[in-house]
Every structure is written in C-alpha cells, then in structure tokens.
Amino acid sequence: MASLDHETEQYYNKYFDLFNTAGKQLIEELQQNALVINSVEATKDENDLYVRKGQLNVLAYLINFEATTNNNYEEQTSDD
Fold first, then answer.
1. Is the pTM of this model over 0.70?
2. Considering the domain boundaries, does residue 53 fall inside one?
3. How does residue 80 score in pLDDT terms, banded at 50, 70 and 90?
C-alpha cells in the first residue's frame, strides 16, 4: 500500500469524517432535490429546462463526490 504525505492524508480524512456524519443527511436531501428538479412536468419553457439541466449536473457532482473521493483515495494508496 502506497503512503500519502501528511497533508493529503488529512485532506482525505476530513472528507471521510464528513461522509460518515452530517454528509449522509446532506446527500439524502440532495438526492430528494434531484428528483424534484428532474420533473419535466414542472418545466415551464426551454430556458427552465436548461436551468434544471445545470442544477442536475451540480447535484450529480455533489451526490457522487463521496464515491469519487473514495476511488481517488484507493488509486493513490494502492500498489500498482
């Protein structure tokens, strides 16, 4: 297993702590928001559609951030 410098290890540990505490509730709320925003029925016009698309892109980034962080950590600490 490859080792990380102290600063990088702290970086990941802060996110792991977040993901295991208040971050879980935040992700659940963001997932619920994504379901509401993803409604075509509530879309008023073409501009609103593009706004919703942008909102969904941001929500997807945030919702997937834990998995992305875990994957990056695994890549950096694995022995190739």
1. yes
2. yes
3. low
